[in-house]
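question for whoever is on the cluster today: can someone run the full assembly for these? two chains, 533 residues total. i dont have access anymore since they changed the login thing
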Amino acid sequence: MSRLPLFPVTMVGSWPRPAELLRAQKAKRAGKLSAAEFDRLADAAVLEVLRLQDEAGVDVVTDGEQRRDNFYSFAADKLSGVKLMTLAEMLDIIEDKAGFEQILKTLDVPAYSLSNPTCVGRIERKAPLALDELRFLRRHTSKPVKIPLPGPYLLTRAMFVKEASRPTYASKEELSVDVVRVLRAEMADLVRDGADFIQFDEPVLTEVVFSGGKTRTFMCASLAAGGDPKVELEFAVTLMNQVLEGFEQVQTGLHICRGNWSQDESTLLRGNYAPLKPWLERLKVKQLVLEYATEPAGDVMRFEGQQLGLGCVNPRTPRVESEEEILAQAQRALEHYEPGQIWLNPDCGFGTFSNSPVNSGNVAAAKMKALAGAARRLRQRHQA
Amino acid sequence: MSDLRFSVRVNSRPDGRCDVRVRKRSFEVGVPLSFDSAYDGVTALEQFLGALGSDLAGGLLARARKRRIEIDAIEATVEAALNNPLAYLDVVGEQGTTAIEQISARVYISSFASEADIQMLWAEMLERSPLVNTLRPAVKLDLSFKVAL
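^ ran it for u. tokens below:
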């Protein structure tokens, strides 16, 4: 990666999609729009997201996940043995229907709007997961590029739906072997083609720790049966480190959040990162991309041996944080980290789920601009 | 009162379920009410809630077609709060009448139409819904919708 300034500004990943692209996404899924026609619209959307990031002063750019339905379900299109199932379809096959109904009620979403990549056969890469995204960005920007990927624990937990997966994989552990293999192949492709930053998204780790066994997201189809949080965290660390083995040359990160589907902050899981600390510090990622702008995440704490991707604007609130607020947040981080260890980012994506973005593009742009403004002032203070 | 009548014929079965015959079709209804989550039939109460949800969803779709407003999907969740459920089970000491006190329905609509158009469809549907208008004087109804792509 080219030399970055202090306090590099980056996105976590997603940006709200334009209505035209959402229509195209639905039409493509219904077989009414060709992949080429969809790509034409998605290309235009990505270029616009690049332009907005440039204008805001973002240092490490993403493609806003414009081509994806959401941050992990897109894998269904790229993997054989995986079927994208709406929750309405999953309700027909899973045993714990009452649990799923509760999740839908908590999220206040319809079953038709959420899709889960469900393992229904042996998984293989039909196509690289995100290499096309990287190549397109490389052709249109000279800035360093971040590629978000679903983490191995998330993919395993989400894809293993025992009613559908057991004919092929006896357990989630067995499935995880192939998930790791797929992600390592993807890492190799991305590194070869010059990805500057590869970020793994593992939002369900907070579920493991903070939900008290009451699963709240459909991303953990079988989490309720998972049992001991320590066992789950150990499993997650093992998988992540298996994926990262041998890729020390590239910048990597792990992003954790606590739900990004609603602007209602009361739906968020509460609790600071202390219960996760012993496991997070064993991860071989170079950076932890964490939420801190949202109050339920608690105060900034230090993780040994890792950079901090400091969440300092809340993607779900309509109010744009002032540069002073961001500076104050950075100051709290500076009590635990050296200036060279801190990156600035929003707490999470602005459009994690394409059909229910948590903010408008205008607010997202203003928040990124505020982050970049604060970063410039921090650089002046700490450049010496 | 108009002369228009709708009727069904219901035949009981030994297992407590019923066959409902209507025009040239028939369907099965389970016991009136069950508190057993493993019960494998669809109770009369659940069928009633399903009918209300279908009335809301189908009614919205019909209005949308009439107005030529495109709707991709509709999903309704319907929940009833039951008073004195234990009286139904003849639990000693339990009194009162088992009845639905409140029905809540949340309807999700997937559409790129404007909020104003969806609001109009919702109002038109409620105005015409036979089930909603029959139930409204008898039970507390909490009906809401949300646009969710």
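summary bc i know u wont read the tokens: Residues 39-147 of chain B form a domain with the GMP Synthetase; Chain A, domain 3 fold (CATH 3.30.300.20). Chain B has one domain: 39-147.
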